[in-house]
Amino acid sequence: MRKNKSVKQKMLLSVIALVLCLACSIPVNAADEIEENAYLGEYVGAGYLRNTVVRTCSASLAISGSTATCGGTGSAYASMASSVKLEMYLQKDNSGWATVASWSTTASGTTAILSKTATVSSGTYRVKVVCTAGGESITVYSTTKSK
Prior knowledge:
Layout: H1 2-37, E1 38-40, E2 54-64, E3 67-76, E4 83-93, E5 97-108, E6 111-119, E7 124-133, E8 136-141, E9 145-146
């Protein structure tokens, strides 16, 4: 009976150790995703400094057939800004990133959203989004997509 309890305790400790190891690895993966296509005002590290006005900024790109759907969102802390400006650029890799289409909007309040489509030819594309609020700007890029 005593031996059986010891085995159960060892198994329980092994499971707890595994869970702790997995829990510790999640923030690294989440940080990689944040660096690639979004800025979250609460995230500090890996080259990002906490901004006091821009809260979030993100860029997205989907390509279906010859249509690229580009998206951008930005938000600001309510106490720091009364409007948010988004500039969104669809860029193609031509031995360097060249802008092939651009859009912008300024929203009163703390959130701005842009969603636009463009016709694309073969190649590799990304979306660049610049979020500006209260004199502060953040630039983010979507993941690249190929047609």
